[in-house]
Design goal:
This protein is α+β, with helices and mostly antiparallel strands. It is built from 12 helices and 19 strands. The strands form 3 sheets. Strands 1, 2, 9, 10, 11, 12, 18 and 19 form an 8-stranded mixed beta sheet that branches. The protein has an 8-stranded mixed beta sheet with strand order 6-7-5-14-15-16-13-17, sandwiched between helices. It has a 3-stranded antiparallel beta sheet with strand order 3-8-4, with no helix packed on it.
Length: 403
Amino acid sequence: MKLKSPEPFWLVKDGIKHSYPSLRENIETEILIIGGGITGSFLAHQMIKDGFKTVLVDRREIGNGSTSATTSMLQYEIDVPLFELSEMIGKEGAEKAYWACYDSIDTLGKVAKKIKSECGFKKKESLYFAALKKDVQNLKKEFEARKAAKFPVKWLSAEEISKTFKIENTFGGILSEQGGSIDAFCLAHDILHYNYKNKKGLQVFDKTDIIKFDYKKNGVTATTEFGNKIKAKKVIFCNGFESTEIIKDDFVNLLSTYAIVGEQNEKNHKELNDLLVWNTAEPYIYMRTTDDNRVLIGGEDEEFVNAKKRDSLLHEKEQKLVKKLSNYLPENNFRTDFVWAGTFGETKDGLPYIGEHPDFPSAYFVLGFGGNGITFSVIGMEMASQFLKGKNHELSKYFKFRR
């Protein structure tokens, strides 16, 4: 009997890379990081690099939250197009945000190389194509905005896309030089294990649920479900959409998204292996290949986060994604091996929330929502480093709460 795995592809592919103990005593530290996904791992890496005594905790196994469900596409393009973002926050801020995402891909690559990660980091081009003829006008406006901002882009006609990448039924699109892909689950584990096993001062506790925080101007005390306490000078929340459990602001819209991965194909996907693909549909679809020669496609978002309702749609969403893939890649003999769903958040301007919140003394938040969660995490790593040195960051006013 052949069964499709309902688990995220990365969890099955990588298995349990590393496990850590739960907290069983009272401890003190300088920096406490909440969340052991890709964001928390980057923040921990930076804090150790900056010389801080650092503790990271996660209520689950490491990486088993959103990081296990991500499609791990590294894009500098934000979910809100550059020309629209410029109208929302100003041309200067929009271009700075885009360039920060652009540079973060190279920064991530350097981290992966330094720690000798097996995450399969690979630089790729990115194709953003028009799903409908009516989308072409705005997509060309986006192309002109990026070109004016000096991003390395070029316009491809539908015929050029078909000839170069064998992607059919498009109406033209923007080809960007900068992009990349990784296995984020693997990278998160590799970063933490590097800073843990090499006695660099990082302590990691998984299966440790914090149920209470006592915030004061000179520090924070966190209490676990078993009554153990962690005293820290600063706490950094890297807990993604779960931050909505403690922040009462209406700052993010939570949605469910779906993804499928095909079985390994002996035919080499040479036209797609160096490319990320997404389109202008609402909700948009996104595609990439994996480092073990599979095709991944995701999308079909729904505006709810009820887990039972979400998972009940897995088969229906799989069929819709397969149909869309066959429309764009008619030569691909796709057969689904993995299908899963995940929760993600979108903000009004496509930007993350990174910085302090007025209701939480001695705390920082690094919350990268949308399709750029991983690149926002890298930016957040650099921003938090500046904050803890008493410095401001040029993106702070664009990424702040209640903006």
